[in-house]
Write a structure and sequence with these properties.
The complex is a heterodimer.
Chain A: H1 8-14, H2 23-41, E1 47-54, E2 57-64, H3 66-85, H4 92-110, H5 114-133, H6 138-169, H7 182-194, H8 202-207, H9 213-234, H10 240-257, H11 262-283, H12 286-317, H13 333-346, H14 353-367, H15 371-397, H16 411-429, H17 432-437, H18 449-471, E3 482-483, H19 488-531, H20 543-562
Antiparallel strand pairs in A: 1-2
Helix pairs in contact in A: 1-2, 1-4, 2-3, 3-4, 3-9, 3-12, 3-16, 4-5, 4-9, 5-6, 5-9, 6-7, 7-9, 9-11, 9-12, 10-11, 10-15, 11-12, 11-14, 11-15, 12-13, 12-14, 12-16, 13-15, 13-16, 14-16, 15-18
Chain B: H1 7-23, H2 41-64, E1 65-66, H3 87-93
Classes of the chains: A mainly alpha, B mainly alpha.
Chain lengths: ~575, ~90
């Protein structure tokens, strides 16, 4: 394969294939793009390609090393699977957007400098918003605007940070950074927004359920994992990330347990899973970083699979709300099996991919003696089982039988889900190829008796608790509802405050205008009285009066001189 | 909701849990923390945390539950979800 500047260019050029008028040839050509792009870097030796010097800036469009390779590989896989899942799509704008979005994400992963990173960073934001807007509804339009504002804001922080850093260090290289200057803090915050740190996370739960059903599969793969990559590259070993990550794993489980929209449950679940990766980055040991990368790899696949299964159900039934679904195991048995495989992978059942990746992070937290963090991660693992392991499949395929009569998912969706499911099991049973891809050599054996038994105890006793709670009627009912989260502050409180302030300013301004008009009127009356036709100053005075006044003035001046 | 969790399922789960509890005494704990050596720690932890999580979530729900149209036109929550690309909307469009 000839050396090209960046595989991102293949995707961006490939997006022009949407101009092909015939639906099936178009979809096939789009599907080939991730494979072509993959072929451009798959066998290249590790080095930095696409070096450019513009003014004093040393750009590197394609830094190929162990870390960027794994992320680019799984992004290519995700792009392929989501395009395959969306094979039926007629909307060309959405097709072009998914391709450019995937390309921008891969371009960002390969960026060797912060300027290139910034350009692709904003590229992911601009392209991905169309996956929401192609829903073509009023709500999707507003949600897309909110999403775009936050994503572009993240990019602008990155830009500001890199400019400050350039002024300070004279370099724009994207390397490991310390949190010791405003510039690096801004970059850190920018990564944190895209990574959906606690309190910066709501764009995720707001936008992913608003996207099209195919769009949310694509969205689930790239943005947050790109941020994980950027944090792993720039801020490995930054201690505060351990606690940020631990908080991220825990708080979403409460929201997910009572959420009705299953795609929003999965969005909360992304938060929780990214938390494990962020903890790994914060610990920063080779084992922990390997855990982060392995978990990101496994996560992209099983999370995509879960979004695909919910998407397939949406495609047939027209809803992803738990309160409207149930009993679909009879009509969509294959989708059910694939969904359960994804659910068991994310819950980290032995023989599934989550088990061999998450345990690296847990092990690293135990190795470094973070007892509380380890406990939090364990509790969060129970939480994952609750919302992604049990709630997602149970409420769609079992639960209340709503008498929905639908067909099994279309063939291309089943193939995409089957492929992802096979990877989930393949990685779980045979983790060595994944371990071999990781940045550091792995000496870790997930399948010890102790580990398997304790993990199964944790999961099955939690499942027993579910069974007991549901039998005794304590399990939360599915209600058509939404739940407030932190975004209430900027969706309700802030607009409310702005309206209030606007009211104050308006009425204050009115009062001010009324008062000043009154004063000006009075002034004019006085001026008229003195300067008007009858006014004292309008009289024509004789010359003698002027002489008199000059004498008075001179008299005062004389008196002042001697005072 | 509970229709699928029949007595059979409950008994099956209980049996698996009993077997796993038994397996606790044949494993060779090699954890870093003392609690990992405690018998049945992971089993108890899983059960208790799961139940706690559900009860805390239900308490949280009392605070934050709102109707679907809370955010009005500015959100997709109250919209017909067929617009997200399900086959019926496709048939309508075509």
């Amino acid at each position: 394969m000839p050396e090209i500047m960046s595989p991102a260019l293949v995707y961006i050029a490939g997006a022009f294939a949407v101009l092909i008028p015939w639906r099936i040839p178009r979809a096939i050509i789009l599907l080939a793009m991730p494979l072509v792009a993959l072929a451009t870097f798959l066998s290249l030796p590790y080095a930095t390609y696409g070096r450019l010097d513009i003014f004093d800036l040393h750009l590197g469009l394609m830094r190929l090393d162990a870390l960027s390779f794994v992320f680019a590989l799984v992004f290519s896989l995700a792009a392929f699977l989501s395009l395959l899942f969306a094979f039926h799509l007629r909307d060309r704008l959405e097709q072009a957007a998914s391709l450019v979005y995937a390309g921008a994400a891969i371009g960002a992963v390969f960026a060797a400098d912060l300027v290139t990173l910034f350009i692709f960073w904003e590229g992911t934001a601009l392209a991905s918003v169309f996956l929401i807007w192609t829903r073509h509804t009023e709500g999707a339009y507003h949600t897309g605007l909110r999403y775009l504002a936050i994503q572009i804001g993240s990019g602008l922080l990155l830009l500001a940070g890199l400019i400050l850093r350039y002024q300070q260090t004279g370099s724009i290289a994207f390397e490991h950074m310390e949190l010791d200057s405003l510039g690096t803090w801004l970059i850190f915050l920018s990564f944190g927004i895209k990574c959906a740190f606690p309190l910066l996370h709501n764009w995720l739960q707001d936008s992913y359920p608003a996207a099209t059903l195919t769009g949310s599969v694509t969205l689930s793969a790239f943005t947050t994992k790109l941020a994980v990559y950027a944090l792993a590259r720039g801020f490995a070993g930054t201690e505060c990330l351990i606690y940020i990550g631990a908080a991220m794993t825990l708080f979403p489980v409460f929201f997910a347990a009572i959420e009705n929209n299953l795609r929003r449950v999965l969005a909360y679940s992304i938060n929780n899973q990214i938390g494990f990766m962020v903890v790994g980055i914060g610990i920063g040991t080779p084992l922990a970083l390997d855990g982060t990368v392995a978990h990101a790899f496994a996560h992209v696949i099983y999370k995509g699979l879960l979004f695909m299964s919910v998407g397939a159900v949406m495609y047939r039934t027209g809803t992803a709300k738990a309160s409207e679904l149930g009993g679909l195991w009879k009509s969509m048995p294959f989708t059910m099996v694939f969904c359960i495989i994804g659910a068991m992978s994310i819950s980290a059942f032995p023989l599934f991919s989550g088990f061999v990746s998450k345990s690296l992070v847990l092990s690293a937290s135990a190795d470094t003696g973070h007892f509380i963090v380890w406990l939090v991660l364990m509790a969060a693992s129970v939480g994952v089982l609750e919302h992604s392991g049990i709630k997602i499949p149970y409420s769609m395929f079992f639960g209340h039988d709503r008498g929905l009569k639908v067909k099994e998912a279309p063939l291309h969706m089943l193939v995409a889900m089957g492929f992802a499911a096979a990877l989930c099991i393949g990685i779980g049973i045979w983790p060595e190829p994944l371990y071999a891809l990781l940045p550091y050599p792995v000496d870790y054996h997930p399948y010890t008796t102790d580990h398997v038994v304790t993990q199964l105890q944790l999961l099955f006793f939690a499942a027993l608790a579910f069974a007991v709670l549901i039998r005794s009627g304590f399990y939360p009912a599915e209600l058509r509802s939404i739940n407030l989260d932190f975004d209430w502050l900027y969706r309700r409180l802030l607009p409310g405050v702005i309206v209030l302030v606007a009211d104050w300013v308006q009425s204050g301004w009115r009062e001010l205008a009324r008062q000043s008009r009154y004063r000006i009127d009075r002034l004019l009356v006085t001026v008229y009285r003195t300067h008007g036709p009858e006014g004292i100053l309008a009289r024509t005075s004789p010359t003698g009066a002027m002489v008199l006044w000059i004498a008075v003035l001179l008299g005062i001046a004389l008196a002042l001189t001697y005072l | 909701m509970k229709g699928y969790i029949t007595n059979k399922v409950l008994i099956g789960l209980g049996t698996i849990c009993l077997l796993l509890a038994g397996a606790d005494f044949v494993r060779a704990p090699h954890g870093h923390f003392e609690v990992e050596h405690m018998p049945l720690f992971f089993a108890a932890f899983g059960f208790v945390i799961y139940a706690l999580l559900i009860f805390l979530s239900k308490a949280l729900r009392r605070l934050i539950l709102r109707p679907e149209d809370y955010y009005g036109d500015h959100a997709t929550d109250q919209e017909d979800e067929h617009s997200a690309g399900s086959e019926t909307s496709e048939a309508r469009d075509a």
